[in-house]
Amino acid sequence: MHSLPAHSVAVVLGTRPELVKLAELIRVLGPAARVVHTGQHYDEELSGGFLTELGLPEPEYLTGVGGRPRAVQVAAALSALDELFAAEPPLAVIVQGDTNAALAGALAANARDLPLVHVEAGLRSHDRAMPEEHNRVLIDRLADLLCAATPDNRALLLAEGLPQERIAVTGNPVVEAVRDHLPPAGDRAALLAAHGLAPDSYLLATVHRPENTDDPAALRAVLTELAGLASELPVVLPLHPRTRARIEAAGLTGLLDRLTVLPPAGYGTFLALARHAAVLVSDSGGVQEETTVLGRPLVVVRRSTERPEAMADFAELVAPGPRIGAAVRRRLAEGTPGLDRLASLPSPYGDGTASRRIATLTARLAVARAVPDRAPALAA
Question: H/E element holding 73?
Fold first, then answer.
C-alpha cells in the first residue's frame, strides 16, 4: 500500500469486534491507514487493552458517543466524522459489519462523496427487530465496494439489485485474526491449568446481546441452563460488564455461583479457551465465525442469525431455555469423533487472505478517486 499517501484511508470503527477483524487490514494498509474510533464501546477492558494486544496504532477518538441511545450515537458520530472528513478528506473510507459506528462512517462518507468500502457486506438475518439488520442493509446501499465474505453473501446482494461490479468475494478477515492471535500450544496449556481446566472437557459461554440481557426472563433462562449444565462439566463465563449489571439488576447473581466467572477476556485468551472447549454457548456473531476456524461446536442463543454458513456443521440456533441444554448435550454426545470431524472441515469464511484482498481493492478505489479517469476493476 506504499502507493497511497499517509492517512489517506479512513478506517472507522467503534467496538471490540471491529478492532479484531480490521487489525490485519490496518497493518496491511500501513501508513495509509487513519484509524478513527467513535467510542461506541470504549473502555480499557473492552477496547483499550486490545490496541496493545493487536499491535494497532492509537486511533483518533471521538467524544460524546459511547453509552448513548442508538440514534444519538449515530448522530453524534456522524457530526464528528463530517468535521474530520471536511478538514482532511480521505481517498476512501472503510467500515466493517453492522455497528452504529459503521453506519455513521458510511453516512459521513456518503455525505462528503467519499468512496466507501464495506467489509463483511451481504450479511442478512431477515429479522427486522434486529437493529444491526437495518444498519447493514443501509451500509450496503451506500458502499462503492462491497466485500462479501462468502458466495452466499454475494448472491444476497445481487438478489437485492446491487450491481455485480461493486461486489467482490474476499473472504472474512476473521480467519486471519484467529490464526494470528491464537496463542501457542504451550501457552494455551498453561492458561487451562491456571483455571483448573482440561482440554475438551468444559463449556465456554458468552452472553451480551440485548435480546438476552435486557429481558430478565430471557437472561434467567440462559443462566439457569448454564447453571444446570455446570453439574455435568465446568462452565466458564467471561462476563461482559453490561451483562453483569443486568444480572445484578434482575437479582440473578445466585445463578453465577456454580459457574467459573472470568473478567472480559483478551482476544488471545478467549481464543485459547475456545480452542479447547468441548462446546461453546454464545449469542455473539463473531464467535459463530471463530468457531469455524477453531473447529469447535457452538450453540447460538438468538432468535435469528445472519451467518447461516456456520449452521451447516459447526453451530445450532436455539432460543433461551431448555433447548440450550438439549443442544449442548447432543454435541457432547458426539465426543472426540465429533470434534475431530469439525477440526477437519475448512471454514466457510475463506483462506486467511481477506485483508490483503480488501487492501488491494481499496487501493484501486482510492487511486481511482485521486485519478478520476482510472476506474477500479473488482474481482468477483
Answer: helix 70-87
Pairwise CA distance, residues 137 & 98, whole Å: 8
Name the residue among 178, 151, 211, 156 with its Cα closest to residue 288: 178
Tell me which residue has cell 431455555.
321
Q: Cell 467519499 appears where?
A: 114
Quick check: 99 and 122 in contact, CB under 8 A?
no
Cα Rg, the chain, nearest whole Å: 21
Residues sharing a CB contact under 8 Å with residue 220, sequence separation 6 or more, in sequence order = 250, 252, 255
pLDDT in tens, 89-128: 999 999 999 999 999 999 999 999 999 999 999 999 999 9
Spatial distance between the Cα atoms of 126 and 293, rounded to a whole number of angstroms? 25
pLDDT digits (tens, 9 = 90+) for 296-306: 999 999 999 99
Closest CA to 17 of 264, 190, 194: 264
Spatial strand order in the sheet of 9-13: 60-61, 33-37, 9-13, 92-96, 116-121, 145-148, 167-169
pLDDT at 380: 46
> In this structure, are residues 299 and 327 in contact, taking their beta carbons and an 8 Å threshold?
yes
Q: Which three cell numbers stand for residue 221?
A: 433462562
The answer to whether the CB of 283 falls within 8 A of the CB of 205 is no
Cα–Cα distance for residue pair 272/298, rounded to 1 Å: 15
Which pLDDT score, from 0 to 100, does residue 267 have?
A: 93
Q: Report how far apart, in Å, the C-alpha atoms of 194 and of each of 188, 198, 231 are.
A: 10, 10, 21
Max alpha carbon distance in the chain (Å)?
67
Report the run of H or E that residue 118 belongs to, with start and end: strand 116-121
Distance CA 12, CA 139 (A): 13
pTM of the predicted protein model: 0.93
Amino acid at 36: V
